[in-house]
Write a structure and sequence with these properties.
The protein is 35% helix and 28% strand. The protein has 221 residues and is an alpha/beta fold. The chain has a single domain, classed as Rossmann fold (3-Layer(aba) Sandwich). It has a six-stranded mixed β-sheet. Strands 2-1-4-5 form a four-stranded antiparallel β-sheet, with helices on one face. The longest helix is centred in the last third of the chain and has 18 residues, at 173-190. It is globular, with a radius of gyration of 17 Å.
Length: 221
């Protein structure tokens, strides 16, 4: 999937006046490319990821996914685009607490009225090694297992682009390494484009390209 961000700005109102988080971000991601975005806490990495996912709108600038300007889409169209083309993995999992692992993974397929939602969800759980935990609630799973469920949920729709925000940030080092290895393996096998926000220099080095967000702009590093 191709993604373009062109001269993107994001400002927030604050008691002291406008807070400039992004100040002219440019980004181009090609099909199958893996890109790491690093930077200090508070530099705007998660804000940028939300803009790229269409979860928030830039103050000005253009974000295009496969040539489609996100600003030209209404909320319903944005939701359909995310359901068809994007997968998102958050640091804190964001699983539905009242749903089993299987139900969490099948949910995005059911929202698209896919007839084989359960079978595909079981297959996705098997790919992340959790077929035996399909009927467990998130509260009965470890942090690493919850993140693998979240990864399966993001990839079950076979997205062209995966956005991952510190996917192992809340895990211990050993568990985080296992989740990251699984993430890169699945992305490589499916030739999925990946934009990865991370504090880990080692994880960033595993990507095709790494960029640093500093002073509101993306620069090579």
């Amino acid at each position: 999937m191709t993604l373009r961000a062109i001269d993107v700005y994001k400002e927030f109102a604050s008691p002291g006046g406008s807070l400039h988080v992004l100040s002219g971000v440019d980004l181009a991601v090609e099909p199958g490319e893996t890109v790491a975005i690093v930077g200090e806490s508070g530099s705007g990495k998660s804000t940028l990821l939300s803009l790229l996912a269409g979860l928030d709108a830039p103050t000005r600038g253009v974000i295009e996914i496969e040539g489609e300007d996100l600003a030209a889409l209404d909320e319903s169209e944005l939701a359909k685009l995310r359901a068809r083309k994007l997968g998102i993995v958050f640091q804190q999992f964001h699983l539905m607490s009242g749903l089993t692992a299987l139900e969490n993974v099948s949910l995005p397929l059911e929202l698209r009225y896919e007839a084989d939602a359960e079978a595909r969800a079981r297959s996705a759980l098997a790919q992340v090694g959790l077929e035996a935990r399909a009927d467990h609630l998130p509260s009965h799973l470890s942090g690493g297992e919850c993140q693998r469920v979240a990864l399966a949920r993001a990839l079950v729709v076979e997205p062209a682009l995966l956005l991952a925000d510190e996917p192992s940030g809340s895990l211990d080092e050993k568990t985080g390494d296992a989740v990251n290895a699984l993430l890169f393996d699945l992305v490589a096998r499916r030739k999925t484009s990946l934009i990865l926000v991370t504090h880990s220099e080692r994880l960033a080095d595993a990507c095709d390209r790494r960029l640093r967000l500093a002073g509101g702009k993306l620069v090579p590093c």
